[in-house]
Task: structure prediction
Amino acid sequence: MAKNLYSKVFESHSVAMLSSGQTQLFIGLHLCHEVTSPQAFAMLREQGLPVAFPERTFVTVDHIIPTTLEERARPLRDSISEEMFAHLERNAKDFGLKFFGPQTGEQGVVHVVGPENGLTQPGMTIACGDSHTATHGAFGSLAFGIGTSQVADVLATQTLAMAPLKVRRIEFTGALKKGVTPKDVSLAYIAKLGVNGGVGFAYEFSGPVIEAMDMEGRMTVCNMAIEGGARCGYINPDETTFAYLKGRPYSPQGAAWDRAVASWRLVASDPGCSFDDVVVIDGSLIEPMVTWGITPAQAIGITQTMPLVDSFSGSERTVVEEAYEYMDFQPGQSIIGVAINVVYIGSCTNGRLSDLRAAAKVAQGRKVATGIRAIVVPGSQKVKVLAESEGLDKVFLDAGFEWREAGCSMCLAMNPDKLKGREIAASTSNRNFKGRQGSPTGRTLLMSPEMAAAAAVHGKVVDVRDFL
Amino acid sequence: MSIKIIDKVPGTGVPVRGNDIDTDRIIPSRFLKCVTFEGLGDHAFEDDIIALSQHGKVHSFRHPAYQGAKILVSNSNFGCGSSREHAPQALMRWGIGAIIAESYSEIFFGNCVSLGIPCFKVDHATAEKILAWIEANPKGQMECLVSGRKLQMGDESFSLEIAEGPRAQFLDGSWNARSGLLLNLAKVKDVAKNLPYMNGFGA
Result:
């Protein structure tokens, strides 16, 4: 019988049926960072449990780490951040886990580090105490964000208790227009299906738009699945996937490589397999997208105006009213021309080499507008080195951007990079929630790296297509 | 680990009106700087509390009438966003033992199961009715029943929805999944051996 990727991977990783009716699912790769793990390791210590498969857990520090060299000196100036960092180091050492620390040159945002090292592979199950774990689905794996108690479950047993999800295939037809990026594709499907449209579903992204996308773009699309309520999103592995993985540090080598590719091909959804739901989106109609509100679904095409409150009813209307009050925008207002204060280019959504290249192309030969604070934060130390080898750092610095060290930075502002007061950020991150970027009253406009770079140059939201 | 069965959650209610109340609002990220969950209850909804107080309003989590409440009631997509278990930990440490809402984010729901906090679903009209009742009767006693899928609220009773899997977990104590998972470690190793990426792709 024809099966979709989700069913194949779920079945091959099923260990047992639990008394609750849930499935005990083997987790092939576990990624760990400093924010959601200390209490999990403490639970193991309390119960005297070892890590069951220490060679399947990889650790890095990303959320709290400062992004300037001076601030990264140990001990970190912020004593709680230092304590979290030190806990992570000690836990990795005591439990025998590989730690991609800053000294190794391999540190970075956990969802950048996994793929660039070839740890993320097709047909795997992956878990991390981080909702953007969905990113890894770009390789045809099932990747779940989990809470801290479940991090402890994975450490102790390399398994999770899970119920199977339904699968919705989202097919993007046609081809993207110039200046339209994977970030715009992501904001478009979330705007269409809503922030909770994916609850209970895994999203399979497919169609010519996805097939034509490089791996980094696919990661952006899967990364945002959780913003649409879907716990995981995935893309069937193909030649693009295999080409990306070949030669990476943890990719299979030699004869194992050919066997791996043969095995990975079998993981993809079979032709004619069934889905619980199918949605078709015409990729050629997607414009550069920008959020105007306080949820990632409150996004519009750059040429559109902000929606009228009267076009919503009931509880949806309440959220729209709340968004207008918080953002201090007017219904019917154009998104073009909205003045910004800060630009943040980076994150697990858009902090990879291709994102930095795209932003640099717009910044090249231009200057950041007066009064705008613009920072570029590479997703990992490796991304930083690659970008510098292409001279992207010089492009950004010449244009007046700050060029930082790797980390999550202003995506959630657990490090020193924060908005102040009512500042508005043009941000390539994934969440525009109230207070998300470090100021309880700060405001976020989500957009692509190209659009964010253009906003930096003009000091306001512009249509990047006019500058390409 | 001892087994704890969770069935009845009695207590007063606390209304948290709104859709899409995300985990950044339940516990802002600056409070994620910690290596234990202790003390998080004091910071639940902190930024919403501050924002409202600047408009001369009091958030229900600070309102004297709702102190000591056990049952949180909200609208749709409660707990969306980050996977931070700090969010349900903060609610639990504030005193919450059960949640009633129109819908939940999946990761938040799962985290609540792990902590032994049943999350029940009701339709919009029922949610509004319960919210209004709590606002009118902040000291009114309520009781959620996992086994009977029921809310008793004053003289009224409402049916509550909870998926069969988590319901069974609360009732047999396996909401704390770890001990059950540990029992199958030998089987885990068998499954691992047969996965292509665990055996050198069939070397």
User: Anything to note?
Assistant: The beta strands of chain B are 8-11, 13-15, 71-73, 98-101, 119-121, 142-145, 150-153, 156-159.
